[in-house]
Specification:
Radius of gyration: 22 Å
Largest sheet: 8 strands, parallel, barrel
Number of helices: 11
Number of strands: 22
Strand order of the largest sheet: 1-2-3-4-5-6-7-11
Shape: globular
Oligomer: single chain
Structural class: alpha/beta
Strand content: 15-25%
Helix content: 25-40%
Length: 398
């Protein structure tokens, strides 16, 4: 069995804990400086301490993202920033691409690994070995590398450096994020964390004579989903599978992480994939997906050139707030649900697989109800059988 790391994003403490609880071996996260997800909540220093303690208590890892392509103004403050970080946490690795930032980290944190960001667009073994000679322990491969390019790349690095690949999430239209659309349209610099995602804007297209030729045109690609290619990636020698999405919801993260964790374990035990876990993956509210560059140059079928009418199911019914007894729980309502006319399943960190449940009673504001419809209101629900559920476990509409 080949051990592969499952690496998940964390936009804040709740999402970090959810990712770890539902199967991630490690999480990557940004502080409030030097990260390429400026619009994510990110972590203040006290939050860094809390999530670092939580991860280490559970024998998991945290990787701090310091992956901006820094200007003079920004690098001048990096030493002070690192001083503060190290007062609160000890990252297992830093994700970065700026040579100066790497140099500082290597001197100050010699035990921490250096992971080279996908922003460096590494797509060949010579580049990977260059970074290895300059202190890197891992490269996060460019998303534009196909499987047929990946296999010889891993062979040629001869285990001198670990290879991490994205397996799920958004795909840039530019070469691994090297895009200037946001800068040009909104003065928000994508390369220091301010991307406005201009490629996803809906636009009307006109010909030279101003005749409308397309409505709702976008330059955006479909999201990536590589679940069916897990066997090939494991057998090729990939060391870490990375899920994109520091700005995604806790429900999305729990669903996606849990599905990949279960699928990886199933494959390693049975040498085949399970349709059950692939179906679970698509219960996360998400955009259309493809395998992106895996099979070679993507065609029109892997782009969202035009707005496609799809109904996103709101399967997220509730999350556990507090256990009152083995059958009775307080929950946060997340979306509309009807205990009389809907069926439910539970996604819980305490159970190896999702399982069906029956809700026999629900009480909201001391009134027995069959329908919940106000997000973030609190309901008391009674299950028909005793369960061992924990805070933040998820109830999902089937």
């Amino acid at each position: 069995m080949k051990k592969v790391e499952l690496l998940a994003p964390a936009g804040d403490i709740l999402r970090g804990k959810m990712a770890l609880d539902f199967g991630a071996d490690a999480i990557y996260l940004g502080a409030q400086q030097f990260s390429l997800r400026a619009r994510s909540s990110n972590f203040d220093f006290n939050a860094l301490k809390e999530i670092d303690t939580y991860a280490k208590k559970n024998n998991k890892k945290i990787y701090l993202v310091t992956n901006i392509l820094a200007t003079n103004f920004l690098v001048n403050d990096f030493n002070n920033f690192l001083d503060e970080v190290l007062k609160y946490c000890t990252p297992d690795a830093f994700i970065c691409g700026d040579p100066y930032i790497i140099e500082v980290i290597k001197k100050r944190c010699p035990k921490a690994q250096i992971h080279i960001t996908t922003q460096q667009s590494i797509s060949n073994s010579k580049a990977a070995l260059f970074w290895n000679r300059n202190g890197a322990d891992r490269i996060i491969l460019s998303r534009e590398v196909s499987y047929n390019e990946l296999v010889p790349l891993i062979k040629n690095v001869e285990n001198k450096i670990d290879i991490e690949v994205f397996i799920h999430g958004a795909v840039c239209i530019a070469y691994s994020g090297r895009c200037m659309l946001s800068n040009n349209f909104t003065y928000r610099d994508a390369n220091i964390g301010g991307c406005a995602q201009s490629c996803r804007w809906n636009c009307d297209m006109y010909d030279e004579e101003m005749n409308l030729i397309a409505k709702n045109f976008t330059m955006s690609a479909k999201d990536m989903a590589q679940m069916k290619n897990i066997p090939k990636l494991i057998d090729a020698g990939v060391k870490s599978f990375k899920i994109e999405g520091r700005m995604k919801s806790e429900y999305y993260l729990a669903t996606v992480v849990n599905a990949y964790k279960n699928q990886i374990e199933f494959y390693n035990t049975n040498n085949k994939l399970s349709a059950e876990f692939e179906n679970d993956l698509y219960k996360a509210a998400n955009r259309m997906v493809s395998t992106a560059w895996f099979d070679g140059l993507p065609g029109i079928d892997k782009m969202l050139y035009h707005d496609v009418a799809t109904t996103v199911k709101q399967n997220y019914a509730f999350s556990i707030k507090e256990k009152l007894d083995d059958t009775t729980y307080l929950v946060f309502v997340r979306n509309f649900f009807d205990i009389k006319n809907m069926k439910f399943e539970i996604l819980s960190k305490n159970y190896p697989k999702n399982f069906d449940v029956e809700i026999s009673n629900m009480n909201i504001n001391n009134i027995d109800m069959t329908i919940a419809k106000t997000p973030m209101s609190i309901a008391k629900i009674i299950f028909s059988k005793p369960l061992n559920l924990s805070e933040n476990d998820i109830g999902r509409i089937k």
